[in-house]
Backbone:
């Protein structure tokens, strides 16, 4: 039984589907007698390169005579169509790649006169498979062939052909056949064969063929056999592994909402139904491409295949993403996933990781992911503005600490401050203390990375009356001019204690590197709500001596109070098993 793609192979120039630019150029060259001695037909598979080579051979040998287009009815044309013409040699360069094959098949016979026709035609298929030595052997003959010889070379990869060959041929680039032209031809074939079909089924076949007529006819033949002459959309979806538009729409909406459980659920459904995940990823990428185009150019109805309600659905999906840059990142991630799935042993895992990267950009440490997060925040702010809510500000995004009554008027209005009562009374015998009696602890400034930074001293900006009672113990009731000191509970969780102390040290290093470096290797030991014990490394005599200085104590005490509250700070050496180096 003859296959459909051989049965409906074009026999004349008029029967060629698509490739109008090639057909018209060759027809004019034949009619005007201006044919060349060497041609190169290149393009995707299944687009008619070999068929066009045979049609050109017919035009050169048709019994109608030179300057006439072939009709496919004469003896010469019938022999060429059947592959039996003695003067038309079709060579497969994929199986004859060496220089010996070129010498045997071409060079040793090229000088002989034609047997039956007016000329000799050599059709070399997949010519890019020839070795450089074979190309060099063919080069001289290709440059100056006998008058009765014409070379027609076909390839899907012209980049592999030597430049010396390309400069001696007329090159024709074959394009992928358009969807409308291909679907019309498939409908014609169904009518000729007596098949019943659904238009949606033919659309699936055309989309799956990706511009190759041979692939489309092969799929159509298989579907007709499966359906006993009926080409249905259900059979096309099952056979070609296509998923419905509703499934793709659900996945796209889940991506827009960053709904990872829904995405994983769709993958599970695809696996349960036996779908090809690689094919699904390609279809999803094609759908996301349409969404991207609609988001970039909302009125670009001529560059997407969707029409009517489908086009409006693309618009709503594009609006759900909110950013063209986000869509471009999704396309990049899906493209990487498709490439990886070709060789992956677990395609499901690759797809799930890609979905997670798309839905949770905070887990993806790339600039594109960071841009996605920024675009999402901008979209959320724009949505708040459109809904009539006031613009977001720091006071709405985070709780604001109470402001001390004694804060200077020159302090920045946007920087919330924490009350900074006076330091507790310190015995004179302590070499390391939180602060001297009457000394002022700087208030914190929020918004710095890694912690809180100290403010300038209140002693320089407050009246003497407001500093009254600065040496009081914070546990004692406050006086009439002194605000009550906020009490903070003890940190009994070791992990929380370590994290809080690390923030204190990081802030010190950021604000005062020379002072913060003294505590770089320190670690908290315990906190009972009144006393904070900190361990210094063994042999830290220099650090202990520097921590006795008043300017160092002022900076350290201020940051410690902001993070822990009012504590009695005690330093111990790690090798002395909790024996205090300095006690307050």
Residues:
């Amino acid at each position: 039984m003859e296959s459909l793609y051989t049965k409906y192979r074009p026999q004349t120039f008029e029967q060629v589907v698509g490739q109008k630019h090639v057909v018209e150029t060759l027809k004019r060259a034949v009619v005007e007698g201006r044919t060349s001695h060497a041609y190169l037909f290149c393009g995707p598979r299944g687009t008619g390169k070999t068929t066009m080579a045979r049609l050109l051979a017919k035009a050169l040998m048709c019994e109608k005579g030179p300057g006439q287009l072939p009709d496919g009815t004469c003896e010469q044309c019938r022999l060429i169509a059947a592959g039996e013409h003695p003067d038309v040699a079709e060579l497969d360069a994929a199986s004859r790649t060496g220089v010996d094959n070129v010498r045997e098949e071409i060079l040793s016979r090229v000088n002989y006169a034609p047997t039956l026709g007016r000329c000799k035609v050599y059709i070399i298929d997949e010519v890019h498979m020839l070795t450089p030595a074979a190309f060099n052997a063919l080069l001289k003959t290709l440059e100056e062939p006998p008058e009765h010889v014409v070379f027609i070379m076909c390839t899907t990869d012209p980049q592999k052909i030597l430049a010396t060959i390309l400069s001696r041929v007329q090159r024709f680039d074959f394009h992928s056949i358009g969807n409308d032209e291909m679907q019309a031809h498939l409908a014609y074939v169904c009518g000729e064969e007596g098949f019943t079909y659904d238009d949606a089924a033919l659309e699936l076949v055309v989309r799956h063929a990706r511009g190759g007529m041979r692939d489309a006819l092969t799929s159509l033949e298989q579907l007709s056999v499966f359906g006993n002459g009926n080409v249905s959309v259900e059979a096309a979806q099952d056979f070609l592994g296509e998923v419905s538009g509703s499934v793709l729409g659900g996945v796209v909406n889940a991506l827009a909402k960053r709904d990872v459980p829904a995405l994983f659920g769709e993958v599970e459904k695809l696996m349960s139904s036996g779908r090809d995940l690689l094919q699904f990823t390609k279809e999803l990428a094609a759908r996301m491409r349409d969404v991207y185009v609609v988001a970039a150019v909302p009125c670009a109805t001529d560059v997407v295949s969707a029409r009517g309600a489908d086009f409006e659905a693309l618009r709503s999906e594009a609006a759900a993403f909110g950013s063209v840059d986000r869509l471009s990142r999704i396309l990049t991630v899906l493209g990487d996933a498709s490439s990886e799935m070709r060789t992956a042993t677990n395609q499901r895992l690759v797809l799930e990781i890609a979905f997670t990267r798309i839905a949770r950009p905070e887990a993806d440490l790339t600039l594109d992911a960071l841009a996605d997060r920024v675009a999402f925040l901008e979209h959320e702010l724009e949505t708040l503005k459109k809904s009539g809510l006031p613009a977001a500000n720091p006071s709405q995004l985070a709780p604001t600490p109470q402001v001390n009554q004694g804060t200077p008027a020159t302090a920045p209005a946007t920087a919330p401050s924490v009350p900074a009562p006076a330091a507790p009374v310190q015995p004179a015998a302590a070499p390391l203390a939180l602060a001297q009696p009457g000394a002022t602890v700087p208030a914190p400034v929020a918004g710095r990375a890694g912690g809180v930074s100290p403010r300038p001293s209140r002693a320089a900006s407050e009246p003497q009356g407001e500093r009254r009672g600065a040496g009081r113990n914070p546990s004692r009731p406050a006086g009439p001019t002194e605000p009550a000191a906020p009490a903070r509970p003890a940190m009994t969780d070791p992990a929380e204690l370590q994290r809080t102390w690390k923030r204190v040290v990081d802030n010190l290093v950021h604000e005062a590197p020379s002072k913060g470096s003294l505590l770089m290797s320190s670690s908290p030991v315990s906190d009972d709500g009144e006393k904070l014990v900190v361990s210094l490394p063994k042999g830290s005599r220099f650090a202990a001596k520097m921590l006795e200085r008043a300017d160092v104590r002022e900076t350290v005490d201020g940051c410690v109070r902001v993070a822990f509250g009012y504590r009695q700070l005690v330093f111990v050496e790690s090798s002395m098993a909790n024996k205090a180096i300095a006690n307050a």
Remarks:
- The CA atoms of residues 182 and 206 lie 7 Å apart.
- The first strand starts at residue 38 and ends at 42.
